[in-house]
Amino acid sequence: MFYKINTAVIFFILLSTSSMAAMTISGTRVIFPGDEKEVTVRTTNKGDTPALVQVWVDDGNANADVNSMKVPYMVTPPVYRVEPGKGQSLRLIYNNMVLPKDRESISWLNMLEIPPAYKGPAKDRLELAFRTRIKIFYRPKALDKSSSASQTEDLKWAVDNGSKKVKVTNPTPYYFSFDSMTIYSGSKSVNIDADMVAPFSTSEFDFEKNAPAIGNVTGAEFKLLNDYGAIIVGKLKASGNGLTLENYK
């Protein structure tokens, strides 16, 4: 019997065994070129027991009923078994759903690792199913195939000490995914809870919890993830009234 894929992650721990996810996905994101009909994603069982796996795509709502949402891909096989040390390739197939041609679109690939049946005493069991979820970026063929990491100079930055927020405006057709962000005021620094900025939009990111307001902003540093999941580091300097940050040239 399989778990419903719209269910939140299910926890189990076998008290006599340490619990770790065995199944992995190659890469931390999938780039789907607009001139392709399908792409291949590799999954691998790095554990020492067989793994039963269920995969699906969601539209950004991680806990919604996937059977009722509209997504631009189907993934096959949807359920499969992988022997220890072996792998399974997934086919991510574009279903011709209409997507914007002037910007990237995002979906999420989910992989649920269903643990083997436990045959010991029921009182010794608290079961856990491991779920992995990564981003799928659909990149229309009208766009340059280079990633957003090459477009960082187009971003616009502002810091609001009063509300303890950093505002990032993205005028490009690419998504920007941040690994981290830090702003500086002289020798002081504050970490920012940065995430992602969608194409042609603005996102506001909060100062880390309990962070104090700081004085005049003197600079900033950010780390972005490129198409391969590698970190790209960028540095910024203050200009004007200290609230606008511009890329170093």
Automatic annotation (TrEMBL):
What subcellular locations does the record give? Periplasm
Q: Which residues form the signal peptide?
A: 1-21
Q: Which UniProt keywords apply?
A: Chaperone, Fimbrium biogenesis, Immunoglobulin domain, Periplasm, Signal
- Spans through the membrane: none
Supply the InterPro entries for this chain.
Ig-like_fold (IPR013783), PapD-like_sf (IPR008962), Periplasmic_pilus_chap (IPR050643), Pili_assmbl_chap_C_dom_sf (IPR036316), Pili_assmbl_chaperone_bac (IPR001829), Pili_assmbl_chaperone_C (IPR016148), Pili_assmbl_chaperone_CS (IPR018046), Pili_assmbl_chaperone_N (IPR016147)
Q: Domain Pili assembly chaperone C-terminal spans what residues? A: 168-231
The chain positions of domain Pili assembly chaperone N-terminal read 23-143
> From the record, what ranges are coiled-coil?
none
User: According to the lineage, what is the superkingdom?
Assistant: Bacteria
Q: Which family does the entry's similarity section mention? A: Belongs to the periplasmic pilus chaperone family.
What is the name of the protein in this document?
Fimbria/pilus periplasmic chaperone
Q: Which species does this protein come from?
A: Erwinia sorbitola
